[in-house]
């Protein structure tokens, strides 16, 4: 009887120890799941925001984060929404500070324990305000090569959101790529002063077609619709919309926010997050950007030339200039 008691007691102690270990392991695992909040000024379907939103959703599906977000947040509400999330104990906050630099940085200063990763044209601020943007000038140059080789009128229309560095550098790289293969190319450039106004972008594009453009650079939604309606070609930006516009999209410069988002999450978890520029993770060498081509539309020779230049970019023998100056029409 005594031996049975000892065996039972040992089994109980072993089970208790195992249960405690499992509970501690579960607690550690729970601590590894950090809460991330994002504040978007546009719908999450918008091309720029979608690249980051999708990466965050993927991280949540992998069990790495708990993700909450607000979309269509106005500039006047942005600070309030940031502060509400900050009070909810988030570890990382992501968003767009382009139109709300001062209030976004003020919130970060008030919550030094939170890591902030914000799209911004201004430098990072210690200790916790890191910045980024979509440095996809490399694939933009490549798609410019495609457009320069394809245009017959030598007039390319370009519609952008705002004339800020993040947009300017993509347009300038595209222009440089087009001129590298076609020095006769001219450019009609317009900014709609909005991140999301497809009808306005479409009207601006129509005006360019009427002025002789036979290819449109679609930095904003709405431009490819104009190209499709007028039966001309377009260059995509940030996301691949070729399936939505069959026979219209020559090539696209794509942005993948996954490398940057995954790096930021890992840095927060590892305690190594710093007030630095995470925009470098959009470079092609990190897998943060790429170019896709429709060879049937662009032609085999043009695509081959672009891919050869892409190889030079990846091996470091060719550098695409980062030019943040506002581009001007050359018609």
What does this structure look like?
The chain has helices spanning about 1-30, 45-60, 75-85, 100-110, 135-150, 165-180, 200-210, 225-230, 260-270, 295-300, 300-315, and strands spanning about 35-40, 65-70, 90-95, 115-120, 130, 155-160, 185-190, 215-220, 235-240, 250-255, 290-295. By secondary structure, it is an alpha/beta fold. It has 2 domains: about 35-130, Response regulator (Rossmann fold, 3-Layer(aba) Sandwich), CATH 3.40.50; about 135-255 and about 290-315, Rossmann fold. The strands form 2 sheets. The chain has a 6-stranded mixed β-sheet, with helices on both faces. Helix 4 (about 100-110) links the parallel strand 3 and strand 4. Helix 5 (about 135-150) crosses helix 6 (about 165-180), helix 5 (about 135-150) packs antiparallel against helix 11 and helix 7 (about 200-210) packs across helix 8 (about 225-230). The longest helix has about 30 residues, at about 1-30. The radius of gyration is 24 Å and the shape is globular. The relative contact order is 0.13. Mean pLDDT is about 90; it is low at about 1-30.
